[in-house]
Amino acid sequence: MNTENRYPVTASLFMLKEIKHRQEQVNRGYQLLKRKAEALRIRGRQAASELASTQAILGHILREAYISLAAIKFTNGESNALVLENIGQAQIRVQRISENISGVSTISLQALEETGVCDSMRYAGLGAGGHRTTEAKKAFREAVRTLVKFASLRNTCILLDESIRSTLRKVNGIEKVIMPKLRNTETYIMMEMDEREREEFHRLKMVKAKKVKSQARAFLRQTVSAGGGGETGEADEAEPGAPPRHHSVECLTSILACSSLTTTTTDSGDFKPVCYPHNWDDDDLLF
């Protein structure tokens, strides 16, 4: 397996448990990020629709405010110098309100009108055009409130857009990079552990075959030596019911001559000897 598509880990049971634990954590974080991105999208659509409607209203309000200002100039002449001379405290202030949207900190602006502040231009237009002056004041107050709302919505849309892009990058990174690497790492560990198990199984079979072969050779030597002693008259009588000695010798000779104690592979990939000694018991097996 390509090492670039997996993490460099050692194939062990502990590492397999660790990779599975990481997969659970990554899946949990992936689901949370997807929910966060969806919530930010919904809030972003709401803010965008409010921003579009506020922008349309703002254009109409500003147009009416400047029309009323033009009417004052036509009635009373230039009054810029008078306004600049009578500037005092602001009657409309902007309040910053912190807001948390699915883990994203945003700041909304709210216009607050202070009624207790003295209006230095409350007597403007008493001689002529007082009605026009009052209408212009109201129009520009409404324009300031709308501008503050527009600025707040625009700031919220910008922050939400950046947060959505960052969250989607994280989601795509987890989905396209981290999760495939974890799956490939788990597959690699499983393959390596299965391969080690097959090698250990084959090693045990070879050890058992070698042990049986050495026992058969030792028994054959004893049998041959015992047979030679019988010819000189020193061999004991055969026990009743025991198989003939020449049959045992032939069987052991066939075991030693059998080249099938070497292993072959089957279709399933397991190693199996072609032939086994006929006198094997379950207690003799090491595996």
UniProtKB/TrEMBL annotation:
InterPro entries: V_ATPase_D
Pfam families on file: ATP-synt_D
Record keyword GTP-binding present: no
Keyword Transferase part of the UniProt annotation: no
Superkingdom to which the source organism belongs: Eukaryota
Gene Ontology molecular function terms on file: proton-transporting ATPase activity, rotational mechanism
Record's keyword terms, sorted: Ion transport, Transport
Region (Disordered): 223-247
Family: Belongs to the V-ATPase D subunit family.
Function noted in UniProt: Subunit of the V1 complex of vacuolar(H+)-ATPase (V-ATPase), a multisubunit enzyme composed of a peripheral complex (V1) that hydrolyzes ATP and a membrane integral complex (V0) that translocates protons. V-ATPase is responsible for acidifying and maintaining the pH of intracellular compartments and in some cell types, is targeted to the plasma membrane, where it is responsible for acidifying the extracellular environment.
Name this polypeptide is given: V-type proton ATPase subunit D
Organism: Spodoptera littoralis
